[in-house]
Amino acid sequence: GAGVSQSPSNKVTEKGKDVELRCDPISGHTALYWYRQSLGQGLEFLIYFQGNSAPDKSGLPSDRFSAERTGGSVSTLTIQRTQQEDSAVYLCASSSGLGRNNEQFFGPGTRLTVL
Amino acid sequence: SQKIEQNSEALNIQEGKTATLTCNYTNYSPAYLQWYRQDPGRGPVFLLLIRENEKEKRKERLKVTFDTTLKQSLFHITASQPADSATYLCALSSGNTPLVFGKGTRLSVIA
User: Fold this and answer.
1) With contact defined as beta carbons under 8 Å apart, do A75 and A69 qualify?
2) A/B interface, count of CB pairs below 8 Å
3) Residue A114 Cα distances to A8, A43, B43, B74, B80, angstroms
4) Mean pLDDT, all residues of chain A
5) Tell me: the pLDDT tens digits for A18-57?
6) Do B96 and A93 lie within an 8 Å CB cutoff?
């Protein structure tokens, strides 16, 4: 069966441009998560969805970041007016439920480089 | 506030020895703890989950212990092999909240 997929795998953009990152979770997984990982650093939690709803957006680093999920499936993370400090690997994960007993399945990530 | 600490950034051990990694936490109650492995350039992969009422879990050469009094989990890899070299992440949730990950410990097993 298919795992979590993310696209693009690599994105190079110029400072000030907008970028859109896509995540396709495992079919049937109701929970979806976005993380950011800078070089040599841990996972920074950004936002999660339960179904199409994002109960807590406080992890998003600034108002330039937004995310949506439609149809309880695909999610997009949008970064507007990108800055060099946005350069990182953006990881998406999904699980059959939220937290607790549910393991998270991660995608391969999107490596974003802002020049 | 909730905190997760993996107090070794890096750990080097000889092949065949047991590697022991530590994860300490505060203000997670109840606590559900998971361990993940991350290889360079890849997303983390789930290894083991241990619940608050469980003291120990095993899976092949892996063993996880959970001490809710000390608020600590130990992750052991016995008979370690160079292929075990990776970053190991602990993650916690309390009930129906998202997992929060520690910064990880980079394990190098030297032949």
Assistant:
1) yes
2) 59
3) 14, 19, 21, 38, 39
4) 92
5) 999 999 999 999 999 999 999 878 899 999 999 999 988 8
6) no
